[in-house]
Specification:
The chain is mainly alpha-helical. It has 2 helices and no strands. The chain is elongated and about 55 Å long. The model has no long low-confidence stretch (mean pLDDT 82).
């Protein structure tokens, strides 16, 4: 859960937010499960990207 508090928020309002937080709309990640088809293994992809970063810094 995430509660956004601005600089000018009073202590009483902060206490009220912490006691009774508003429920937020949930993100349902299962809707996107299996939608993207990768042409390679995820671990191999990460290694390839990390190798590119290492080569750029040299």
């Amino acid at each position: 859960m995430l509660i956004t508090i601005k600089k000018d928020t009073y202590k009483q309002k902060i206490d009220k937010l912490l006691i009774n937080p508003k429920p937020r709309k949930a993100f349902h990640a299962k809707m996107f499960l299996g939608k993207v088809k990768w042409g390679e293994d995820a671990c191999q992809y990460q290694k390839r990207l990390r190798d590119e970063w290492d080569q750029d810094n040299v």
